[in-house]
Amino acid sequence: MSGISDSFQRPINYLRISLTDRCNLRCVYCMPPEGITLIPHSDILRYEEILSVVRVAVEMGVNKVRLSGGEPLVRAGVVDFIRMLSSFKDIDDLSLTTNGVLLKEKAAALRDAGLKRVNISLDSLRRQTFEEITRHDRLTDVLDGIKEAEMVGFSPIKINVVVMRGLNYDELLDFARLTIDGWNVRFIELMPIMNKGAKQPEFVSAKEMWETLSSLGTLQPCSPLAGNGPASYYQLPGARGTIGFITPVSDHFCFKCNRLRLTADGKLLPCLLSSEEVDLRSALRAGAPPEGIKQLILKAVAAKPEGHRVSQGVVSQKRPMTQVGG
Ligand code: SAM
Ligand code: SF4
After folding, report:
1. Is pTM beyond 0.70 here?
2. 14-324 CATH
3. Which atom number of ligand 2 is nearest to the Cα of residue 321?
């Protein structure tokens, strides 16, 4: 297995795949209430097409794959697809990001299929606020999904919380207290990527979150959890679990970016926040051999920018988050 690096000597070993742009929730920061214009089914990559891309990427040194969306668990056949992915012996970290709504019914099958880890998005512990943020009354399903994921042995489970003033900021301490009993909670700064018509909630910086959390005690830095993503991790005194901060806006982590993103319609994105993309679907459907796919992957790697400028309000990404995969 070889390895690839971009023009800034960053090793690229992580592929995030948006399996679908469909979703069973409508989070205020992600979608307008009526949803977004969906990619036609015929334009969505078929599983075997995704596998062709993964096969080449793994040969080039990718060893970390995450499935996202949209909501990856709404796509039919996802469990069988994961079973196929888990047969790649060079993928040592196979994970999925989900809103958790369907996890209760699918967790055992996902684990059996070889999925290693799940990250679950949960922005509120209060039924009414959860519904206000996601526009669906599904909090109980998500909490049941988290319990089931724990029961079938997923570990560590990371809970992703996008923090928004006036919506869930007043739950910061409640989420943090859950780490005492072993939850791993990651507070995410809201990124200004909205779809037209989506409500713009109010940003809270990690620095402000940190100050609020200090009322619970001194946060001690600790080693990163499995996956070694962009979060920095801390623990409250006596806590079994961790508090992570993901700071795409106030302190971006581009210098260690190791990822490429594959959209549901088969475009390879060098960066979450840039509009650059490389069209893999046309090549796949024109019968490109693995070498052709490899050249396109190298093209995307070469196009990786040094960093984004979201803190200065510059976001050239035109696609909705559901296609990009978060
Ligand atoms: N549906 C799945 C879920 O919600 O976990 C996977 C897709 S979602 C686009 C992936 C992640 O992106 C979620 O944790 C979500 O909270 C996060 N996300 C979406 N829009 C965001 C935004 N504008 N700023 C920060 N995080 C965002
Ligand atoms: Fe769906 Fe995830 Fe977007 Fe929420 S953040 S609308 S769950 S894709």
Report:
1. yes
2. 3.20.20.70
3. 3
Q: Relative to the alpha carbon of 133, which ligand is closest?
A: 2
Which residue's CA lies nearest to atom 4 of ligand 1?
Answer: 99
Atom in ligand 1 nearest the alpha carbon of residue 29: 23
Atom of ligand 2 nearest to the CA of 134: 4
Instruction: Report the pLDDT value the prediction gives residue 120, as an integer from 0 to 100.
Output: 98
Q: What is the pLDDT of residues 193-235, one digit of tens each?
A: 765 555 679 999 999 999 999 999 999 999 887 766 788 999 9
Instruction: Let me know: does 122 contact 87? Beta carbons within 8 Å.
Output: no
Output phi, psi for 222, to 5 deg: -140, 170
Are the beta carbons of 326 and 28 closer than 8 angstroms?
no
Quick check: 192 pLDDT over 90? no
**What letter would DSSP give residue 184?**
E
What value does the mean pLDDT take over residues 94-111? 98
- Specify whether the CB–CB gap between 322 and 193 falls below 8 A: no
Pick from 265, 320, 261: nearest CA to 35: 320
Amino acid at 303: A
CA 305, 49, 57: angle at the middle one, nearest 5?
Answer: 45
